[in-house]
Amino acid sequence: MGIQDIIEGKRQWRAHMARVKALPPDYQIVYKEIQRYLFKVGPIDLPYVLSGIVDFFEEGAAAGKGVLELIGNDVAAFCDDLVKDSRTYADIYQESISEEPGTAPR
Description:
It is built from 6 helices and no strands. By secondary structure, it is an all-alpha fold. Helix 2 (about 25-40) runs antiparallel to helix 3. The protein is flat and about 55 Å long.
């Protein structure tokens, strides 16, 4: 990863966060909770997932819906359902230790 990649990544992240800051306050609060939860879970395609959430929230806000109308009352359950079929960094780690010589597969 070169310096240009890092600069481009930061530019994209700032643009993403500007979109989040343009959302209504209740959407921003829920987005931050979702982001915190997903950072812990660690899906590999996290930037794609977060961008999709912002798209979804922008559409909901434009339609005049409350954020909980879109996701329900349980943020964690919404997140789990969102990434249930996604590979995580924990999955990759688990696979790597299962493949080490002298280690029995789990």
